[in-house]
Amino acid sequence: MDFAHSPRAREYLEKVTAFVETEIIPREREYLEAQRSQADRWAVPPLIEELKQKAREQGLWNLFLPDARHGPGLGVAEYAPLAERMGRSLIAPEVFNCNAPDTGNAEVLVHYGSDEQRERWLAPLLAGRIRSAFCMTEPEVASSDATNMAATAVLDGDEVVLNGRKWWSTGIGHPDCKFVIFMGLTDPTAHRYLRHSMVLVPVDTPGVRIERMLPVLGQYDEPYGHGEVSFTDVRLPADAVIAGPGRGFEIAQGRLGPGRIHHCMRLIGMAERALELACRRATERTAFGKPLVDLGGNRERVARARIAIDQARLHVLHTAWLLDTAGAAAATGELSQVKAAVPAMAQDVIDMAIQFHGGAGLSDDTPLTGFLAAARALRLADGPDEVHLGVVARRELRRYRDERGGRGGNNGNNGNNENNGNDGQGEQR
Amino acid sequence: MDFAHSPRAREYLEKVTAFVETEIIPREREYLEAQRSQADRWAVPPLIEELKQKAREQGLWNLFLPDARHGPGLGVAEYAPLAERMGRSLIAPEVFNCNAPDTGNAEVLVHYGSDEQRERWLAPLLAGRIRSAFCMTEPEVASSDATNMAATAVLDGDEVVLNGRKWWSTGIGHPDCKFVIFMGLTDPTAHRYLRHSMVLVPVDTPGVRIERMLPVLGQYDEPYGHGEVSFTDVRLPADAVIAGPGRGFEIAQGRLGPGRIHHCMRLIGMAERALELACRRATERTAFGKPLVDLGGNRERVARARIAIDQARLHVLHTAWLLDTAGAAAATGELSQVKAAVPAMAQDVIDMAIQFHGGAGLSDDTPLTGFLAAARALRLADGPDEVHLGVVARRELRRYRDERGGRGGNNGNNGNNENNGNDGQGEQR
Amino acid sequence: MDFAHSPRAREYLEKVTAFVETEIIPREREYLEAQRSQADRWAVPPLIEELKQKAREQGLWNLFLPDARHGPGLGVAEYAPLAERMGRSLIAPEVFNCNAPDTGNAEVLVHYGSDEQRERWLAPLLAGRIRSAFCMTEPEVASSDATNMAATAVLDGDEVVLNGRKWWSTGIGHPDCKFVIFMGLTDPTAHRYLRHSMVLVPVDTPGVRIERMLPVLGQYDEPYGHGEVSFTDVRLPADAVIAGPGRGFEIAQGRLGPGRIHHCMRLIGMAERALELACRRATERTAFGKPLVDLGGNRERVARARIAIDQARLHVLHTAWLLDTAGAAAATGELSQVKAAVPAMAQDVIDMAIQFHGGAGLSDDTPLTGFLAAARALRLADGPDEVHLGVVARRELRRYRDERGGRGGNNGNNGNNENNGNDGQGEQR
Amino acid sequence: MDFAHSPRAREYLEKVTAFVETEIIPREREYLEAQRSQADRWAVPPLIEELKQKAREQGLWNLFLPDARHGPGLGVAEYAPLAERMGRSLIAPEVFNCNAPDTGNAEVLVHYGSDEQRERWLAPLLAGRIRSAFCMTEPEVASSDATNMAATAVLDGDEVVLNGRKWWSTGIGHPDCKFVIFMGLTDPTAHRYLRHSMVLVPVDTPGVRIERMLPVLGQYDEPYGHGEVSFTDVRLPADAVIAGPGRGFEIAQGRLGPGRIHHCMRLIGMAERALELACRRATERTAFGKPLVDLGGNRERVARARIAIDQARLHVLHTAWLLDTAGAAAATGELSQVKAAVPAMAQDVIDMAIQFHGGAGLSDDTPLTGFLAAARALRLADGPDEVHLGVVARRELRRYRDERGGRGGNNGNNGNNENNGNDGQGEQR
């Protein structure tokens, strides 16, 4: 057992850390002011391109991709601490070209895209010239149960026709967002995991319409944003279907594991920065003759936050290591564990930091409310906490049920082809 | 012991309930759409004046005032359940002319205002023709400790001169907001509770400047809003000082008790409505073949919310009853108790309701994010939870400390002239 | 709305309070030492009879009975604060002849007993000469679901024959325990609420055997204790069946409401005393140069305990008032609410008080571990918390289901005329 | 980063796991019955010696000692998972000769003992022929602050004289307990960390008296037990002072780190077994037509327990790794973190398992109440949670205070060279 990062991971960690702390965080205020002063809140302040350029020059680019053809080819566990560092600033992920959902979309195209899709969409995406969105969740149904999905992707001769309404399509507000990956029902008569397809849809295809942008706790997260998007008789050549019809679930599954690790690590970065801001504030501000941190239970709050963050980080790193060494199927339970635990932890720590800041914490004078929105949203996005707790419980109980019929497992990490129907349900988003 | 409301309170409760449920809530969407479609987000949709007119015609107007000259003269405990009903809709309080901080400002003018102040400011305020704000909290200091207050209200001949910066001045964004009550330091050499004054300041006085409006978790709560306001050499006649110099704390204290009850009861109304929305959603939506409410621990969440709300309501009603029957001093501990307990309870219930709604809960499609902002803000406004917990602890411990020197109390409700220095500190905002 | 107790209730409250504080609590140590020094841990130290005599002389006797023929005839809400005071000492309830399950058994006999049963068993019970137990829960089945009950009470000519095994029969260890009330299945073909009977069984009836006494968290709670009791072909005259065959559920239901109030109020008394002990300890002990209470978050713990206790008390008092004024059926939801909330609250406060005491808190040097066992047991006794949360949730959701067209849901706990149906299931123990 | 155990650690883990599951757990009932049936509850059922013999033969003996002269010489992180397995049964640690406080005492003698002490006491201790206790905590003072310690170890010529009263001396009830290590004040004028000495005291030395055995939540944990021990003019040769006078703190510090890891890992083992028992019970028992686990929020409870246990295990393993690779000083903060977090986690999981068992969980029919007592005690033993939270907070805040110019704050716990100073205070027990 060795908790030390590999030399290569440490090297990247030092570089990314330095970049975030010296290039990005000191310029957050400048970014915010640029954003506030520009006529269009959805425009991207030029600062971002400047920082992207600098990051790319330093080789801090597309670090999320395990594929060595497109970067350093770091493993999930090696990338994880970098994602944490990027999480410390809401503008950092884009700077390193490591922003969701571009990361997941890029992985999909690397693994399942056609050569043409790779050339036309993946290349500029990896170059940071365009951005993308992912259209899966639907407003009319409980999308935590993927079998509820109502949007359609129907083959019609050599075309595929899309209809339906999606929302919480993150990133679609960005001026550079040029394509989305759309998931829809293709063949309702097929096996439940073979019914859906993923389709690459250029944003300017006729019939695609952004109905509105959605706030998260009042924040639109410009210039990325979350859109409600309607698809009305959207016609595309059949080869827009990624990897062919019926492979939507398969693709979604592969996309999910690393994405959850990234989300969780970024949230841990937000929690760390929130704790740091809280500590600074509480040592600097004075009330009743003492620094705030020495009032009431504040020191215990700091300690509990430290413990919660450290436990969460180890939990996610262990899960990433499992993903790297044993594969996504073996890590299913752990992925649900961290998904259920980390956003809630981050929400609590950030809420505490807000409280330490008094009124300032409620406003947009600190990144805390943005962090809070991110953490709160992640308790729902990619499957609500409760669905993931259900997956964890099912895996825990399975061994005792099995025992009563026959064989038993020996510990939580076990099981290879154990994926049956229900497990999948909670893991599709 | 009788938990039944008086016939008069029941009658008002029925009327207000009916008004909220049939006149206001069904028009929330219309209000929201009007607000979204108007050029100026800070304009008041005409709907409001229409509803105000109707409420006033039904005698549902200024119900908060215990003073029978200005309405039915309901006691705090009689008004409390009405405040709960008004809390169910973010637009209801204004409709009944019962919105904070106008309520507290009106009480101040009823009790301490000069005849001229009453005529010029109180009359239109009670008529719903103008609105007002309260300027106490400051950005540069931990305002939970009122002795930190840095803004000044200095007498200069027959004038008073104000300087300083205030923020979280709620309601100042409203187009009808015509005056603020400003609290500042007048005589730093006086006894700590005789140093400050309250001054009535017309908003258009030279030197008063709204620097910016502040969001709460991304929401500006238009058309009320929370402002950061600078006062630069603002000169007013000395009779603008309410009740004369040095009485700021005295006035603040009297203002706080009923205000806390109102805030808490409105939050209970929000929590009730959040629970109602959660139950409806969770019985209507289906996932994995069941209504959401039958998945995981959702039923227990509903039960715990019911318990938490009912306990909170009884707690606040008991405190209101104490305030009515034994006075503000006797109720100090209980006021801090409910202040520390109710906003956090409401935040939890509302957060749960958001979770039940999935993505919709995060957006502004329901009143839930507005409720969340209100509850979250109240954990800081009017003294952070932690300061109030400190007051509660001090009162609890006092009897044991006293015992060790001499006399002891006999139970939490006791104590008449026990107010000493520190208690006041946490109770000034 | 009036939170003041009636003059009569206040008078009794003062008397009981004084008795507990001056007669009982100062003699707890003497009691403990007597108990430790006697050869038989299950003998009753003579002190108890002395105190009983004194209480009876002061008219502080059988206060729990609303029936004016047997005492002052206090309502449930009037008795509730007295039960709280009795809860402050583990030996107090017996002193006032108000100990469970004698209280519930006495109520059963008052309402349903035959004249002969009243004369032979009720009279000495109310005189404090004998004690009793209640045999309902069974070891082999989840007794929270009363339909699981397997013990039988079968009529055979003019006799009733009992078979089965019960446990957690509280009080059966007491040397004066002379009878039990046994609940068993009489007619499995009858309506589910007409199948069971209650039978009065003298403890010395052949076939009744105390198999063992059960500890609660290691404590046997001598001389009362909790027994596992077997009934093997126990034959009694048919008139031992209380109120006749098939009325077991009906009787159980009537017995439950007041009993829950009593339990909850005693727990509130324990929580109050625990908080008092905690405050004393934490102001007297010093570490790191400060009283313990000024270290870390201890003051917040004191404040939160105060809030939790006060909310719980109001909650139970309100429920008692409902029981008195609207009847048991109207109070079903509230009874489940307090049953689910109060023992857990008490457990938390007591655990906190233990922590404040350091090692001493873990030992039997204070009443805290006895209180902890009582609170912990009550989270299971009389229906586990979770069953009661289920009742609360069902009632909360019913209105929304009803709204949607009168039909019921299909959830497992859901009957059609469920009010009289399943609700009862969780309420039988 | 590699979360896999070393081959050697895996091999021991397999062996210890197999031994616990096949040799120990199946005989727990036999042990319990032997213990219940023997006249003296403090006698050791013969079963134990039999199991010890078998474990020793398999080389599963003294595994806790990193020193290769006395066993396999496993590192702390290698031993940690073995300690977890031993924690699954309350009788397992002794079977492997790995019971506290013998483990810590053995480590003290290995590192600091004289040759004579090693021969006379260490050898039989490591052979499992004798047992020992540790006397540090005192009843009269808050022992979390070691400077409160009042017992004395005064040099008088070539003798050392001990006086004072200790309690919570674990293991002193065991019939084989032959010596204790006593900590006392030697030179009150020395530097605070050079004042105390540790003295090896044969239990039969005149003046040593076990005043009583102390229950933990009603349980005496026979045959180990926790004693209150008085030392009255206990005279020993001066060479009984371990490593010479004034080195008490130094020795205590070295003893603490591994001990905390062991305690935490055993608690994790208890929590795992509690969860296993809970899952079995809840899949086997039925109520309301369903297995218990499918009622209410029970599945979420299972999931949250799984998450909490896994996070805690990673946390402790990481701390153990730090201890192994960077030393005790570097791991101080992490040791306090796990000490503050793991016992509370275990208490919660065990409490949940008790609830799943209904009445049976409260009794001694399962190991759960024993586990609960162990977890609850550990929230106080070896420094209360709150003291450790204080250490964690201080370390967290130090960097921000340092940043502000090297000066310290004025909070009570705060020295200047506080690293060696106050941190120690909370870590001495």
From TrEMBL, chains A, B, C, D:
UniProt name for this protein: Acyl-CoA dehydrogenase
Oligomer and partners: Homodimer.
UniProt GO cellular component terms: cytoplasm
Alphabetical keyword list: FAD, Flavoprotein, Oxidoreductase
Residue span, Acyl-CoA oxidase/dehydrogenase middle domain: 133-234
Similarity field: Belongs to the acyl-CoA dehydrogenase family.
GO MF term set: acyl-CoA dehydrogenase activity; flavin adenine dinucleotide binding
Annotated ranges, domain Acyl-CoA dehydrogenase/oxidase C-terminal: 246-395
Presence of the UniProt keyword Oxidoreductase in the record: yes
Ranges where the record places region Disordered: 402-429
InterPro entries: Acyl-CoA_dehydrogenase, Acyl-CoA_Oxase/DH_mid-dom, Acyl-CoA_Oxase/DH_mid-dom_sf, AcylCo_DH-like_C, AcylCo_DH/oxidase_C, AcylCoA_DH/ox_N, AcylCoA_DH/ox_N_sf, AcylCoA_DH/oxidase_NM_dom_sf
Cofactor(s) named in the record: FAD
Compositional bias ranges of the Low complexity kind: 413-429
Protein's GO biological process: fatty acid beta-oxidation using acyl-CoA dehydrogenase
Superkingdom classification of source: Bacteria
Organism for this UniProt entry: Streptomyces carminius
Annotated Acyl-CoA dehydrogenase/oxidase N-terminal domain residues: 8-128
